[in-house]
Amino acid sequence: NAGVTQTPKFQVLKTGQSMTLQCAQDMNHEYMSWYRQDPGMGLRLIHYSVGAGITDQGEVPNGYNVSRSTTEDFPLRLLSAAPSQTSVYFCASNAGVITEAFFGQGTRLTVV
Amino acid sequence: EDQVTQSPEALRLQEGESSSLNCSYTVSGLRGLFWYRQDPGKGPEFLFTLYSAGEEKEKERLKATLTKKESFLHITAPKPEDSATYLCAVQAGRSNFGNEKLTFGTGTRLTIIP
User: What is the 8-class DSSP label of residue A73?
Assistant: First the structure.
């Protein structure tokens, strides 16, 4: 089982560029989430989804968009990259409420 | 506002030297407390879920316990391969979905010296 797969692993963007971080899971999980991890801040929830066609905002949603057209995929779009979005991004999936999250390997994004 | 505080920030132990990591929390309506292990350059890996005060869970050299205000991750006779950052997260509040109420601590970076 691949679990949760994120691409790319590393990315450098210029301020104002847009891009999409890809996330796919093969566990048939309904719940998927995007987090960012910054030094001294812990993991913070950006957006989440409880099933295909259903998404909602987390703690730090500004500057990011998501959609969920299939159970397997949950891409995160940066609309106009800013240096404040330099971070490590993790995608996660859960089988249900109050269950453990399975995380991808992360995407290290640098915005210059 | 839900808060999760982990201590210490970093801990260096000799191989075989047992110790405990602390996760204290202030939340309204705890639904679950999670422990994860994170290796450098990797995503967090699930270790334990605790649901109510008094609950304990064990896995190899690790044992997690829960009270109404804090959780401890006890590590017994650690080995160098136990070196990692250990993250605590709490899920609280009443919601249909649950994910939006998951709050992570900043972690304890554990180093085991051979």
Answer: B
Instruction: Output b/e per residue, A73-110; b: 16+ Cβ within 10 A.
Output: ebbbebeebeeebbbbbbbbbbeebebbbbbbebbebe
Q: What is the pLDDT of residues A21-74, one digit of tens each?
A: 999 999 999 999 999 999 988 899 999 999 999 999 998 999 999 999 999 999
Asked if B97 lies within 8 A of A104 by C-beta distance, the reply is no
Give the integer Cα–Cα distance in Å for B76 and B62. 7
A contacts of B105 (beta carbons < 8 Å): 42
Query: Which residues numbered 1-20 in B keep a CB inside 8 Å of some CB on A?
Result: 4
Give the residue from chain A lying closest to B31, CA to CA: A98
